[in-house]
Amino acid sequence: ITRIPSNTFRHLYHLMELDLFKNAIEKIDRAAFKGVASGLHILDLSSNRIHSIPKEALLALNAKLWLANNSWHYECDLQELLWEAQLDPNFIQDIICHTAPHEEYVGKTLLQVLDAGVNFCSMHQRTMDVAVFITMFGCFIMVIVYVICYIQHN
User: Phi/psi zone of residue 95: left (φ > 0), alpha (ψ -120 to 50 degrees), beta?
Assistant: First the structure.
């Protein structure tokens, strides 16, 4: 299995445990687990090729999640998901960063990254703040140049 498309399990209302261990899953759609959210108790996605999962796919689940041994890319969406997800504490040390916006976190476990106080969401926010500031500054300069040109020509 390489992908879990939307509504794959929608008619499996009584599904309690879903073991997808050691597949080649790379992509999980937002509504992949729609229909099983209330009854699912265990979801094992460990030992796949997953680098990110849409928050919407897992946050509706009340299941204990096993996510170890994947190709995780640490970024804001994954951090938000992992803060709110019900991770199995026995396997949380096996969630390792394979890629990240900052190279110093590559190869570190989720616990090491979170214990360091890293907040990828605030990094993203700062980047957006700088972009907005530069855009506003550029617009301000254009208005000043326009006013100066207008005064010179009149």
Answer: beta
pLDDT for res 124: 47
Q: In what order do the strands lie in the sheet with 42-44?
A: 17-19, 42-44, 64-66
Q: Tens of pLDDT along 33-89?
A: 988 877 899 999 999 999 999 988 988 788 899 999 999 998 888 888 887 888 877
Angstrom distance (rounded) from CA 82 to CA 101: 17
What are the residue ranges spanned by the domains of the chain? 3-118, 122-153
Q: Which CATH class is domain 3-118?
A: alpha beta
Which candidate, 113, 71, 120, 119, places its Cα nearest to that of 93? 113
**How far, CA to CA in Å, does 131 sit from each of 124, 125, 134, 137?**
11, 10, 5, 10
What's phi and psi for 118, nearest 5 deg?
Answer: -70, 135
